[in-house]
């Protein structure tokens, strides 16, 4: 059930947040010498005016296919890891989340590579006169034909560095917030509390690793025009800081945080409510902590008290 709930939650998150992700990527990789966008709002305006509203959904095929499976893997691995660890403690929440984040990188990295390339294609054009890629799968196939597996996994190390601690913070923050809010299944405010906890967990996760995401986006967008600008992660960091200063690591942060709250609110609330609905009648969870995807031991064993 963890995998099914994660899958549905992932799809809900993609539909809500993809336009913000497109804006984030455009801002992260635009040229500092000839910037197309002045900020988040201007980027939104420009994309809609120049490329129509569908421009905001460029590359959605890749995350829609990938993120549903990624969330299924994340919530499934996290739940099983918590069962193996045995005790529901903050440290175990972090470790289980980190393990889930590391494992899903195998799918996440190629998916985000295709998404980034598709989002950058036809920038500023309503109807791109020369499309390099037909869709996300065609994008990955072309990259593989040119560069092999190494090309398809471009940015894997930065993805691993971002996702491992990021998902640890993600599940830890959600656990702490839901416990602090102390909601119950019959609480009329339970859903708003779950949405708030999920949204804030997403924001905390992004803030903890955002500079790495900027570098990852630049490495994955590098070579779109046929010329590679960066030779390594260190070279990308060095060139970016030299030309744009340390504020380069906050490029696109506003749109990321605007996206993080609704996406993760929708994802976590959907997963939690599905698990609550599926297990609640026969197992009778006592509070929202028992309904959390990370608290499978309490869910499965009726009447077992929380360890916190």
TrEMBL record:
Intracellular or extracellular location(s): Mitochondrion inner membrane
GO BP of this protein: mitochondrial L-ornithine transmembrane transport
Entry GO MF terms: high-affinity L-arginine transmembrane transporter activity
Region annotation Disordered: where it falls in the sequence: 285-308
Recorded GO CC terms: mitochondrial inner membrane
InterPro entries according to UniProt: MCP (IPR002067), MCP_dom_sf (IPR023395), MCP_transmembrane (IPR018108), Mitochondrial_Carrier (IPR050567)
UniProt key word Transmembrane helix: yes
Keywords: Amino-acid transport, Membrane, Mitochondrion, Mitochondrion inner membrane, Repeat, Transmembrane, Transmembrane helix, Transport
Name the record gives this protein: Mitochondrial basic amino acids transporter
Lineage: Eukaryota, Metazoa, Chordata, Craniata, Vertebrata
